[in-house]
Amino acid sequence: MRRFLPYLVLLLTAFACQSAPDARTIIDQAIEAHGGDAYQNKQITFDFRQFHLVLKHQNGRYSYTRTYRDSAGVTIQEVLTNDRFSRSLNGKPQTLDTAQTGKYSRAVNSVAYFVLLPQKLADPAVLADVVGDVAIDGQSYQKVRVRFQAEGGGKDHGDTFFYWFNQQTHTMDYLAYSEGGPRFRKAINPQTIGGIRFQDYINYKGDTNDTTSVATYDRRYEAKQLTELSRIEQKHIQVIALPRE
User: Fold this and answer.
1) Phi, psi torsion values for 70, nearest 5 degrees
2) Interval 37-73: pLDDT, tens
3) Whose CA is closest to 159, among 135, 141, 182?
4) Distance in angstroms (rounded) separating the CA atoms of residues 54 and 27
5) Which CA distances in Å does 105 have to 123, 147, 148, 149?
6) Residues 130, 142: contact at Cβ < 8 Å?
């Protein structure tokens, strides 16, 4: 029997490796569950709070436009593309310094990023690893930590996110992040438009003096130790197919 033990260990190890998907596989399954190729060559428009957003992805290029009015009634339009960021006031281009460009472009990109999750996790700058299997609200999830390479990861490449992917449906049902204040989001109101799954979120926060890592926020949520802060809702969503080259 002893001489067969090494072979048994090898077989069990191989089976474990096959049965436990890596982070990239989990993310790819989630992207497919949320739309897969439906994200390509599309124009997505929606309203988020006082902002109107137009997100275009066409033949490897993107353009994110955010339009709104300030308290003085001035119409502001901000456009972020692969190459540049621009901002206009009542149609007149605004001259921005480096700090202003960074501030406004990150604000536009942030809204687009969360709406386009989990497709955004396909970015080559994403560094992902599986934390483990957990249960939330009676469902089984694969918990994945995401960080970003310095090159291609943007100004906030040092940020860490956590995502919880449903083991049955492969959907991204929860996420957590620390930049701008630790937050835990629960997906609600899923709807499929143009082949893409869109979700609203309940946004939770911990205590003001809480220094606990957001990695523990799934347990904090289960223990009802998080407070609802806001609702993240996209309204009047429309998806239009764009021509391919």
Assistant:
1) -85, -175
2) 999 999 999 999 999 999 999 998 999 999 999 999 9
3) 182
4) 25
5) 18, 20, 18, 20
6) yes
SS3 for the chain is CHHHHHHHHHHHHHHHHHHCCCHHHHHHHHHHHHCHHHHCCEEEEEEECCEEEEEEEECCEEEEEEEEECCCCCEEEEEEECCCEEEEECCEECCCCHHHHHHHHHHHHHHHHHHCCCHHHHCCCEEEEEEEEEEECCEEEEEEEEEECCCCCCCCCCCCEEEEEECCCCCEEEEEECCCCCEEEEEEEEEEECCEEEEEEEEEECCCCCCCCHHHHHHHHHCCCCEEEEEECCEEEEEEECCCC
Please give the structure tokens belonging to residue 32.
């497919």
- Domains located in the chain, CATH noted: 23-241 (2.50.20)
Residue 153 reports pLDDT greater than 70: no
- Rounding to the nearest 10 degrees, give the CA dihedral for residues 101, 102, 107, 113: 120
Q: How far apart are CA 93 and CA 78, in angstroms?
A: 10
Kindly report, residue by residue over 191-226, the tens digit of the pLDDT.
999 999 999 999 999 876 777 788 999 999 999 999
What CA–CA distance (Å, rounded) separates 76 from 166?
39
